[in-house]
Sequence to fold (108 residues):
Amino acid sequence: MSKFMQPEITRRMLGWQIETHDAGTCYIPGSVFPVPDFLTVGQPVDSTYGLVFDAILADLRDYIPALHVESIEVCRGYFARLSAPGYMDCTEWECHSTIHGARESLRE
Fold:
């Protein structure tokens, strides 16, 4: 890790796990895009939610580098990434079940 990029780890929170065809798995913490109260961890968010699904997908697209979303699910964990303070440079978010796992991942 360069001295320029700094670790950023959230508290344990709900967030989004988005499986895509062209960018792999993407994570978005709930502090960036909140998870509605009626959704629970592990619950897939799909077209059965109708307009709610369409709205969530439309908003999440602003945060993922993918064109083809395969599935969206609510997850819980510590979200981690590297970012450059004062700049827009940052890595993609990762989600870890423990704070130790998040720290180790950023060290690598």
Q: What stands out?
A: Residues 51-60 form the longest helix (10 residues). The chain has a mean pLDDT of 90.
